[in-house]
Specification:
The chain has 348 residues and is an alpha/beta fold. It is built from ten helices and 17 strands. 48% of the residues are buried.
Amino acid sequence: MKAVHVTGYGDVDKLEIVEKPIPEPKSNEVLVQIKACAINNTEIWMREGAYGTDEKSGWKPEGVQFPRVPGSDITGRVVKAGNKVKECMVGKDIVLFPFTSSGEAGSEHYSEDMSFIGSEYDGGYAEYVVWRADLCYDMPLPNYIESAAFSVSGLTAWHMVKQIETAPTDTIMVTGANGGVGSLNVQIASKVFGAKVIAIVGDLALEKRMKELGAAHVLSYKSNNLANDILKVNGRPIDSVLDVVGDALFSTSLHVLKRGGKFCTSGSAGGQKTELDLRTLYLKHITLYGSVLGTREEFKHMLEAISNGKITPVIERTFPLEQAREAQTYFKNAGKLGKIILLPDENI
């Protein structure tokens, strides 16, 4: 089969197209013919060494073992089943839950042995992948490309919105609102949980599309006084922030939060380290949340919301698998809206 290997830490030249044997499913696994795989920050940061280039580079203590096939947002068709898997699985169109864990239900994402497909396991930048049968779910939409737009970004966004206990009376600021996680934060917070959303983007040309996704207000982080803009459109301090940017908007976020406000982060595209005046934290009674992925139960609820039309896919463009380097380079461009999808088979 055709696959993309990450051969080590570095730039996109560390992505290589290779031919390798089709993997065989173990007794509790299925072989999936991959139809689409969306790109996430996680596989780019893994390649770049943003999580560290030593034993801390992956989700497990031993780090990433190269070469590795990246990719975690995977849809496809089951073409073979292990001997402990029901034969009726064969032929199903499925989406993959993106990690394994021995953690108890409701805390799977906290487990020390959480292992991510595309990091600790070979992933979706390939024509085939093997995965545990119990971690495969029916596709929420009939289209492979559209169904691939949600797994990691959607689960991350769903968990963030749940973690801050979003209520219909809340005003929530979403940073990086045009990205994969951000655009889903906007949709889930507004259309599923009924909150008022202020979307922060770079280019206000995206305003119409962001409002279609559910944003009540759209502001640019390039404003000379973003904090005042936020307070003006809302008429008061905001209740919560859902953040994927990090340092670049951290001080603004804390400034516009109300007393008792909540700040939840799942990314740091705008800077991984920041300064925090602890007086702001305790004098305003602010709660900070770190968020990574979510639970299988949340994943099922997200898929139901997608199937019911409450959340829609936001896709920027697709690339053939052979153009993985170009796709990851394009992914890092500013101003795009939604997901970038790799296609092992362009004829789907």
